[in-house]
Amino acid sequence: MPAPAVDHVHALPLHRVLGRLIRGGPLGLVEEAGRQAQGAVVRLGLGPFRPLLLTHPDHLQHVLRDGAENYARGAAMWNALGRLTGQGIAGEGPGWRASRDVLRGGMSSRYLQRTGEAIASSVEQAVEELAARARPEQPEDAVTAMTRLVHRIISPVFFGSRISAAQCDRLGREVATALDSLLWRMAMPFVPHGVPMPGDRAFLRATRTINRMLLPAIDTARRQGGDGADLMSGLLRGRGPDGRPLTDQHIGQDIVALFVAGSESSALTLTWAWVVLARHPAVAAGVRREADEVLAGGPPRPGHVRKLVFTRQVMAEVMRLYSMAWAVPRVAGQDDTIGRVPVPAGTTVVLSPYLTHRLAAFWPDPLRFDPGRFGKQAVRERHPLAYLPFGDGAHQCVGQAFFTMESVLVLATVLSRYDVHVTGDPRPRLAVALPPRGRVGLVLTPRDRSAQKILDGDVENPWPAPSPG
Ligand code: HEM
């Protein structure tokens, strides 16, 4: 679809923003803005803050690829986050470049080939721990269960054996607390840092605990020679823009940034995968069939990922509909034009993969779950920026290959061994990512090979037809 010919921006003034907020909540507001604009540029009237919402793939291509040098991070929201994640991988400029070089290499396909066996073995252990907890008499909260599972798998990748599983859980909790306590500052970025705000104390407490846990681990890694394959060792070998080693503070904040970027998004995406499979038993049956063929009753292996073609398509479709990156902000450095809309220097543009993934012109019947959309031919024929759950351009996710391996092996391992029961009525809720509204329960029982049962649930369809207008 060509970019819509917009001579003027599609405005969503404050009174309509509020009306939609009341009717559909924050996510309803975002969804309706996207539905009405269908790819046109939308100016959101949020009081003094009037960002442009971009969803059309041509516009995303302009911001993330063709004109990327004009669109840095640095949106006010990032300044608040910078108190937690620093100016390394979560920032811009030379500090970001130094971290990015290390982390991209540290999570590259070559690295995954070398460490794939260890990752697959972590997946198997994490799945068995999950099954031991998610029992019929006491369904596990799916988000908690998937968070724990993700921590088991990322902990050796981030820290080697320097941080125990329990410490990794604690670290994850403290990072989540620190992040939550920044929400006020992210929502009101114009308030100076010196002015006290709700959440400040919780933030300080959490960051102190995080430092108490991470700094000794960094010290241990340094004394061990810093030559491990884990990311913390990789960062110890990194060099800053001045050619000197990265400081402990830089490394610690990068690790926190990795948690922020990689832990919750992975856990929530896996949670939605179980919900979706419970709603689509035929798809679940297809994943199990493939797992039986490829794993053949054995443990997961890294080489299986390439062969689990349908499972990868299912995960891709889960990430289309439940794209954790619902808002990716950038700031225009100089005056520009997007479509035919003038973008003065200093304007915040908010890209929304979540909404781009719902544009009917690129995704016919967009709310229908259909892994077939990710067949080779269909992918080739689609606009390259119509699908970007991991972002695109200079800041594209460094954890993409890792998450693909992790998620595909988790689905295949669970379904080859267990029947899964999902309870709850989950619809996504707008937060930093998209957690389910309300509790989702998860029960795993050893697979009943005599029955047809695979995955069942008492979830309701969370995607009612969009309300007109
Ligand atoms: C479902 C899982 C994940 C999703 C949906 C996701 C999504 C994203 C997106 C959209 C971006 C781009 C942000 C931007 O352009 O500003 C990003 C960046 C990033 N992601 Fe992920 N991510 C996931 C998993 C992971 C994992 C597992 C890790 C690490 C182990 C990770 C580490 C990062 C880092 C470090 C960046 C920043 C890269 C940079 O700025 O250069 N992510 N991710």
TrEMBL record:
Name the InterPro entries for this protein: Cyt_P450, Cyt_P450_CS, Cyt_P450_E_grp-I, Cyt_P450_sf, Cytochrome_P450_monoxygenase
What this protein needs as a cofactor is:
heme
Q: Which domain of life is it from?
A: Bacteria
Task: Decide whether keyword Heme is in the record.
Answer: yes
Keyword list (alphabetical) reads: Heme, Iron, Metal-binding, Monooxygenase, Oxidoreductase
Q: What Gene3D superfamilies does the database record attribute to this sequence?
A: Cytochrome P450 (1.10.630.10)
* PANTHER family named in the record: CYTOCHROME P450, CYTOCHROME P450 12A4, MITOCHONDRIAL-RELATED
Q: What protein is this chain from? A: Cytochrome P450
Q: Which species does this protein come from? A: Streptomyces luteosporeus
